[in-house]
Each structure stands twice: as structure tokens, then as C-alpha cells.
Amino acid sequence: MPSLPDVMTRDAAALAASAAAARPAPDDPADEVGREPVHEPTRAALVEFLTRMGDNTLVLGHRLSEWCGHGPALEEDIGVANIALDLIGQTQFWLGLAGEVEGRGRKADDLAFLRDVWEFRNVLLVELPNGDYGHTLMRQFLFDAWHVEALRALAASTEVRVAGIAAKAVKEAHYHLEKSADLVVRLGDGTEESRRRMQAALDVLWPYAGELFLGDAVDAVLAEAGIAPDPASLRAAWDATVRPILAEATLRVPDGTFAHKGGRRGIHTEHLGRMLAEMQFLQRAYPGATW
Amino acid sequence: MSSEWPLWEIFIRGQHGLNHRHVGSLHAPDAELAIKNARDVYTRRNEGVSIWAVRSSDIVASSPSDKGPLFEPSNSKVYRHPTFYDIPGDVGHM
Amino acid sequence: MYAQLVKTDATQVRGLDEMPPEERAFQERIDRGEKIEPKEWMPEGYRKTLIRQIGQHAHSEIVGQLPEGNWITRAPTLERKAILLAKVQDEAGHGLYLYCAAETLGVSRDELMELLHAGKMKYSSIFNYPTLTWADMGAVGWLVDGAAIMNQVPLQRTSYGPYSRAMIRICKEESFHQRQGYDIMTKMAGGTPAQKHMAQDALNRFWFPALMMFGPSDKDSVHSAQSMAWRIKMNTNDELRQKFVDQTVPQAERLGLTVPDEGLRWNEDKGGYDFSEPDWSEFFEVIAGNGPCNRERLGARVKAWEDGAWFRDGLKAHADKAVRARMAVAAE
């Protein structure tokens, strides 16, 4: 069979070129704001910060990928895989840069597959098990609303490589948020059962959202250098996104301000260790092999 | 069986600025989600810049038995086809 | 193949002279290579056979997500994870295109799903085999997708328009699937002794099940003859199997792996390999539900469907509410 005329897909070479153009600038010292005399505390804080960003997308992308083949409708199965793919792609950038700034020769894969739980820096929210699909969507929505604000601020980072990654990722995150917000509204205001499930998900997950806005010394250093925003500064915009959507979804925001926390310091739920045991299995069982 | 999502026909205009082209169908509860689903299902390889979704039940089609009467008249209008005209070679590209 | 043992209701293939005028005109269109489109007249047997075949093909795509989905969360690098996820996602898309093609014949996707879940429709035997090591991701892409492509490429020219168009789209998207499988095999076969062992082991386990995908010899089958007359089957099972073996054996040699068939040898006269028959009793057991993973595969599909019911119903209810709200505003 002769190959068919390809009328819909752009030339792969052109796609690759545009992907390369979108990619943040490679390690070019001249580009790098933070590196003329590198301030050691800043470098350490930057590594920590990049690890947090990358671990969030890695862990959440992994969780979403668990749905592949098990989604509630074929169209949704395909849709959630797109989001997982975006997040895994972002992970390659964040952890790749983390390894580069760290300067110990570790690649994104080394960081993803060869660190133990206590070295992971994602928020607890993203490592929670998927639960039902409503739980997955609610977790996604709470995360996406933060992700968009965080990336928008980071796109203006004084660290050009950070700004480059964020500028690309924020477009993807916008789409993720549009989708998750829409589904939260529809399912909240759907059937009695869908509303009950979405409310149950919100009740469980709400106390995990607060950690996204808790700053520490690392954040203070980076905010001071104009590299990353103070997490607390994102809260108002997040509320302005999240609360009207939840109201439209006819869902009740739980009372109380308690926030589960620890992930950003490496103190996790029991769930993450199990996830890593699965995710890292091959790299751990066959050290040094190439795949 | 619970009520099935209706079927939608999806049309996409690709990168080349050509007309929207029928690419396939999908299920969605309403038009807005049909567009969102179409983005996920039919533009996974960056194929499109604009999407139309039309309820399959709203498509009005010529009936197959009309094939003769509808299309044969235009068969005889050969003057609509560029190759009908003999243009001298020295006129150049036309 | 993704559709195996598809029945046609035919007891014999009739000649043009034996057909009533309408059917004769239909058959002549097919013989001229014309496409049959939805809502055009077609023999009931053609319609039913296509529903069985396209439905089975669609089911195979979505059940086929599961053996590879089994390794997405264990993929060894971020890039492998993304590639595998994209591939399994494509399979969901291919199932979707095929269900839509079947729907043009007057059966809904939900009806087909329920038939699958009730065990009244089949999917390809191959997906009832387990994926035990990472090398199986290589073997599945290389052998299973390789075998599927053998069938799908000619099906782009099938007589039924929507099926043909779905196959064209699928073939275009699948071009990377087999390559990524072979790429994994190359890494494994050229890797550490343990990796090489896994690669050989995967080939050993998947070789004969891959040959079974084409189905038993159908040179005497009236169903196949009828399907070929209708151009919804383009080659005999034996032709495709031979072509697959001839193409795949050199690829295995290139990997330094041994095809697990002592009867395999080059036959100069026919310009192809002689090879041993798969164990067809195993094939029929797998088809009958006794494969290693039948229960898990069907169970996973049923669970996804049942667990997703509230989601599908919730979205439908919201859409209906929105329509009612718009009507109420308009009526004011």
C-alpha cells in the first residue's frame, strides 16, 4: 500500500523545530542571570524550588496516567492522557534544569527514578490516590488553578530558564484549568449522585490545597531575587478562580483553615512511597541499565 | 442502559487555511464538550486550528438514490473544469 | 487479527447470476472498487458482518490498551513513559474511530459495549496474554502491532467507506507504534545480560500468539470467501501470516534473538519461510475464555464502564438542564 498523502499533519521536522524553539534556552552561561557570581544560597534554593515544581508535575502526571485504559468514557480516557503527557513533559524540563543547576551531573531521569520519598518535594495534594474520577478531577482543578497562577508569575522570573519553561507550561496549564473547571461545574450541577461525589471529593481535598500557599525560607530567598513568587501571594488569585467555580458547581466550600502540609519539605503521606516503588522499579532492580 | 451521549460530526481546518474537513465523529453531552473532546481526540498531533462540531442528527444529506439526478447534471458541465480549455503553451502558467 | 473468525451468515458465496437485481448491482459496485456509504442499500448480511467485524476490531483496540497500560506506571524513563502513554492513548482513539464507523451501520457504541461486557462479542485473542516484563512492551509493539499493520494496511481499501476512512487515519497514526516497540527491543537485546534475557523471553512468549492473531487457515472458509467478495477482508489469513513471518524473522536476527520455532527455515522455492503451526487448541481455548488474562481484561473493561456511569450520566444531566434553562429564558 503506498503511503497516503499527509494532508493534516504538519511535517514532523517543522514540528520538531517549533518544539525546539519553544524549549527553554540550553545551558548558556551568558544567558543566565543567576550565574554571574552565583550566590550559593540562591543556587541551593533554586534547586529546591525546581525540584518542587518538577515533583509536582511528575507525581500528578503519574497519577493521571493510571487512568489510561480505565477512564469513564473513551473521549475522557483520551483527554486525561493528554494532560498527563503535558505534565510529564513539564517534568522533563523542571527536573532537567534542577539537575543542571545542581551541577552534580544528575539528569531528570536520575532525579525521577533514583530519589527516595524523603527527597521528593511535591505537595501532598498531588500524591493522594486517584479515588473515583470525581476525586481525580477535583484534585486536578485545585491544582490547575494554582498552577496557572504560579506559572504566570514564573514566566516573569528574572531567571531566564525558569521563565522559558513557565511560558511554555502556562499555555498547557490554562487548557487543563479550563477543562477541569468546566467538568467540576457540570458534575457538581449534574445528577444528585455526581453532586454528592464532587462534594465528597472537595471535602477531602480542600485541606490539602493550603500547602500550595505556604512559603518557607527557600521561597523567601527566591522571592527576594525575583526568581519565583512568594507562594502566599498567589492565594488571592487562586481564591478568585476557585470559589466562583465551586459556587457555580453548587458545591459548598468546607469551613476551617486547616492545611495538611509536609510534602514540600519531604514529609509525605504513605501513598508516595508505594507510588515510587512502582514507578522506580526497573531503575532500582537493574541499576545502570539503559532503556 | 443509561442515556447515551449524542453523536457529533467533527470538522477541522488544518494549518493550511483550507476548508474545514470532516475528520470523524465522537460522543459528547453537548456542543461545548464536543469541541473540547474533538481537541483531545482529533488534534493529538497538532493537526488543527479551528474545529466545528455538528450534531450528527442535524446533518441533512442527499439521499443515495438521488445520486443520479443530483450529480449527473454537473457531469455534463465540462466547462467548469480547467482542463476543458486549450491554452497555448506560450501563455505561461495559468 | 484484531477481528478473528468473523461470521457472515453465508452458506455459500453466490455468483452474480444468482443474485436479485439490487444485490447484483451492489456486488458490481464493489467489484468496480466503489465505496459503499452509510444509508445506501446493502445486503443485510453485509451490514451484520461489518458490525461484527468493526465492533470486534474496536473492542480489540480498547481491550488492547490494558496489556500495555500495565506498564505505563513502571516505564523506566520519563521519555519511555510519555511514549508508551501516547501509544496507549492512540489505541483509545482508534477504538473510538472504529466504534463511530460501526455506528453508521445502525448500532450504538453503548450497545456494542454492552455486548462486549456480556461476553457476546469477542476481541483479539492476543490481548489475553500477560505482559510480564518491560521487554513485553517491545514485543507487543514489534510483533502485535506488526501483525495488526499487515491486516490494517490493506483494509484501507475496504469497500465500506467509513471503515476505510477509519483505517486510513489509524494506519497514519500507527506508524510510530511498531517502531517504538522495535526500538525497545533493540535497547533490551543490546543491553545487560538480564535485559537480553528478558528480550528473548518476550519473543518466546509472544511469537506463537502473534501468529495466532491471523486466525486459523481460512482457505476453505465460506465466511472468508464471502468477506473477500465483499472486500471487507482483503487477504487470506495464511497469506498475511506468511508475509508477517517473512518480514519479522530477519528483524529478529538483526536483534540477535532466536525465533522460538525449530521448524523455521528459508524455503528458496516459495521465496519465503517455512514455519510451524501455532497450537490451535490453545487459540480456541483463549477464544473460549480460558486464556491467562481473559477474566482480568474483561473485568477491567466492565469496571471502567460501571464506575464511569455516574460521570456519563452527570454530564448528560447537566447538558439537559442547560438546554431547559435556555428554553425557559426564551419562553419568558
Automatic annotation (TrEMBL), chain B:
Gene3D superfamilies: Phenylacetic acid degradation B. It holds the Pfam family PaaB. It comes from the Bacteria. This is Phenylacetate-CoA oxygenase. It comes from Methylobacterium indicum. The lineage of its organism: Bacteria, Pseudomonadati, Pseudomonadota, Alphaproteobacteria, Hyphomicrobiales. The gene is paaB.
From TrEMBL, chain C:
It comes from the Bacteria. InterPro entries: Aromatic_CoA_ox/epox, Ferritin-like, Ferritin-like_SF, PaaA, PaaA_PaaC. This is Phenylacetate-CoA oxygenase. PANTHER family: 1,2-PHENYLACETYL-COA EPOXIDASE, SUBUNIT A, PHENYLACETIC ACID DEGRADATION PROTEIN PAA. It comes from Methylobacterium indicum.
